[in-house]
Amino acid sequence: MTAYTEAEGQTLRTAVFGAMVLVSTADPGSVEEESHAGIRAMTLLSDDLRAVIAAAPPSLPKGTASDVEVGVLAALKEAVQIINAHEPRDVEIFRAAVTEMCRSVAGADGEVAATEKEMVTRVVEALA
Fold it and tell me: Distance (Å, rounded) from C-alpha 1 to C-alpha 121?
Protein backbone atom coordinates (compact mmCIF):
# COMPACT_ATOMS: atom_id res chain seq x y z
CA MET A 1 0.00 0.00 0.00
CA THR A 2 1.22 3.46 -0.88
CA ALA A 3 1.55 5.66 2.19
CA TYR A 4 -0.29 8.96 1.97
CA THR A 5 0.15 11.62 4.64
CA GLU A 6 -2.88 12.68 6.67
CA ALA A 7 -2.94 16.00 4.78
CA GLU A 8 -2.85 14.19 1.44
CA GLY A 9 -5.61 11.86 2.61
CA GLN A 10 -7.72 14.82 3.64
CA THR A 11 -7.23 16.42 0.21
CA LEU A 12 -8.29 13.16 -1.48
CA ARG A 13 -11.40 12.91 0.73
CA THR A 14 -12.28 16.56 0.07
CA ALA A 15 -11.88 15.97 -3.67
CA VAL A 16 -13.96 12.79 -3.86
CA PHE A 17 -16.79 13.67 -1.48
CA GLY A 18 -16.74 17.32 -2.50
CA ALA A 19 -17.18 16.44 -6.17
CA MET A 20 -20.25 14.37 -5.30
CA VAL A 21 -21.64 17.18 -3.12
CA LEU A 22 -21.14 19.75 -5.90
CA VAL A 23 -23.10 17.62 -8.37
CA SER A 24 -25.74 16.68 -5.80
CA THR A 25 -26.40 20.29 -4.84
CA ALA A 26 -26.33 21.55 -8.46
CA ASP A 27 -29.91 20.33 -8.78
CA PRO A 28 -32.03 19.25 -5.82
CA GLY A 29 -32.84 15.55 -6.01
CA SER A 30 -33.06 12.55 -3.77
CA VAL A 31 -30.05 12.89 -1.50
CA GLU A 32 -30.36 9.25 -0.49
CA GLU A 33 -30.42 7.96 -4.09
CA GLU A 34 -27.58 10.29 -5.03
CA SER A 35 -25.36 9.30 -2.11
CA HIS A 36 -25.94 5.59 -2.77
CA ALA A 37 -25.05 6.09 -6.43
CA GLY A 38 -21.85 7.91 -5.51
CA ILE A 39 -20.81 5.31 -2.94
CA ARG A 40 -21.44 2.45 -5.39
CA ALA A 41 -19.18 4.16 -7.93
CA MET A 42 -16.46 4.51 -5.28
CA THR A 43 -15.73 0.80 -5.77
CA LEU A 44 -14.04 1.82 -9.04
CA LEU A 45 -11.14 3.34 -7.07
CA SER A 46 -8.00 1.32 -6.40
CA ASP A 47 -7.84 -0.48 -3.04
CA ASP A 48 -5.17 1.97 -1.82
CA LEU A 49 -7.28 5.01 -2.66
CA ARG A 50 -10.45 3.50 -1.18
CA ALA A 51 -8.56 2.82 2.06
CA VAL A 52 -7.24 6.39 2.24
CA ILE A 53 -10.65 7.88 1.50
CA ALA A 54 -12.39 5.63 4.04
CA ALA A 55 -9.78 6.34 6.75
CA ALA A 56 -11.49 9.46 8.12
CA PRO A 57 -14.54 11.64 7.54
CA PRO A 58 -14.28 14.17 4.71
CA SER A 59 -13.93 17.87 5.41
CA LEU A 60 -15.47 20.19 2.88
CA PRO A 61 -14.47 23.81 2.35
CA LYS A 62 -16.52 26.36 4.30
CA GLY A 63 -18.27 29.47 3.08
CA THR A 64 -20.64 30.23 0.26
CA ALA A 65 -21.58 27.73 -2.44
CA SER A 66 -19.02 29.45 -4.65
CA ASP A 67 -16.32 29.11 -1.95
CA VAL A 68 -17.09 25.41 -1.60
CA GLU A 69 -16.95 24.91 -5.38
CA VAL A 70 -13.61 26.72 -5.69
CA GLY A 71 -12.17 24.71 -2.78
CA VAL A 72 -13.37 21.35 -4.09
CA LEU A 73 -12.17 22.00 -7.64
CA ALA A 74 -8.76 23.01 -6.24
CA ALA A 75 -8.72 19.79 -4.14
CA LEU A 76 -9.48 17.75 -7.27
CA LYS A 77 -6.52 19.29 -9.10
CA GLU A 78 -4.27 18.75 -6.08
CA ALA A 79 -5.53 15.16 -5.66
CA VAL A 80 -4.40 14.30 -9.20
CA GLN A 81 -0.93 15.69 -8.40
CA ILE A 82 -0.77 13.78 -5.09
CA ILE A 83 -1.78 10.49 -6.70
CA ASN A 84 0.62 11.04 -9.58
CA ALA A 85 3.49 11.56 -7.10
CA HIS A 86 2.65 8.31 -5.27
CA GLU A 87 1.25 5.94 -7.88
CA PRO A 88 1.02 7.38 -11.41
CA ARG A 89 -0.97 4.40 -12.73
CA ASP A 90 -3.78 5.26 -10.27
CA VAL A 91 -4.32 8.72 -11.80
CA GLU A 92 -6.47 7.51 -14.70
CA ILE A 93 -8.38 5.18 -12.38
CA PHE A 94 -9.03 8.11 -10.02
CA ARG A 95 -10.16 10.39 -12.85
CA ALA A 96 -12.48 7.73 -14.26
CA ALA A 97 -13.89 6.81 -10.83
CA VAL A 98 -14.62 10.40 -9.79
CA THR A 99 -16.16 11.14 -13.20
CA GLU A 100 -18.37 8.05 -12.89
CA MET A 101 -19.31 8.97 -9.31
CA CYS A 102 -20.42 12.41 -10.47
CA ARG A 103 -22.36 11.01 -13.44
CA SER A 104 -24.02 8.44 -11.16
CA VAL A 105 -25.01 11.13 -8.67
CA ALA A 106 -26.33 13.36 -11.46
CA GLY A 107 -28.43 10.58 -12.97
CA ALA A 108 -29.58 9.00 -9.69
CA ASP A 109 -33.12 10.35 -10.00
CA GLY A 110 -33.48 9.24 -13.62
CA GLU A 111 -32.66 12.52 -15.32
CA VAL A 112 -29.70 14.86 -15.48
CA ALA A 113 -30.43 18.57 -15.13
CA ALA A 114 -28.43 21.10 -17.12
CA THR A 115 -26.93 22.45 -13.88
CA GLU A 116 -25.75 18.95 -12.94
CA LYS A 117 -24.26 18.41 -16.39
CA GLU A 118 -22.39 21.73 -16.12
CA MET A 119 -21.02 20.78 -12.69
CA VAL A 120 -19.87 17.35 -13.92
CA THR A 121 -18.05 19.15 -16.76
CA ARG A 122 -16.32 21.48 -14.25
CA VAL A 123 -15.27 18.48 -12.13
CA VAL A 124 -13.90 16.62 -15.18
CA GLU A 125 -11.98 19.75 -16.25
CA ALA A 126 -10.45 20.01 -12.74
CA LEU A 127 -9.32 16.39 -13.03
CA ALA A 128 -7.58 16.99 -16.38
Answer: 31
